[in-house]
Amino acid sequence: MTVPITLAQGDITAQHADALVNAANSSLLGGGGVDGAIHRRGGPEILAECRRLRASRYGKGLPTGQAVATTAGRLDAAHVIHTVGPVWSATEDRSALLASCHREALRVAAELGARTLAFPAISTGVYRWPIDDAARIAVRTVREAADPALFDEVRFVLFDQAAYDAYAEALAAAADG
Ligand code: AR6
């Protein structure tokens, strides 16, 4: 048995789930893309909690590949789980870090009792990871790491058609394999 993996196209901040994953950076203090949208729509409570995390557990920032939860503020979710994807490199294989983002977000979600979780396409925007490769890693990792007893649904929310198609293809390939 594997967890049901679903796909949606659009803005992740318009989604309802127990937890939404943010493609953050180590500072946890905001940025563009998904991160900008989450803070804009979620409101100042999220940033306030991120600042507290920086003042306590994550004085040096959240390391790449790790995940931490905050409130979801005004978003239609109970939690935001912030994770930091690796920047794409053509010379160094950072796939394990991208897989780790997904695994750690699942681990944090399970700790919180979040049974539905929505991921964006981590690292595929500002961090330039090729979408087909990111999709393959994300889908494979979630299939392997999400315990079906703990999750009802893991959703990937893809901003554009090309990203949606890449994840659909990765999902079909994983189901065949
Ligand atoms: N909803 C869903 N997907 C989105 C949205 C949205 N509202 N906005 C963009 N995407 P990115 P990264 C897609 O850049 O590559 C930030 O500045 C986008 O098309 O958000 O992990 C952070 O602070 C792409 O496919 O995240 C970091 O500094 C995917 O989401 C840095 O960017 C991820 O794009 C992280 O870069």
TrEMBL record:
What's the name of the protein?
O-acetyl-ADP-ribose deacetylase
**Taxonomic superkingdom:** Bacteria
Query: What SMART domains does the record point to?
Result: A1pp
Domain Macro per the UniProt entry, residue ranges: 1-175
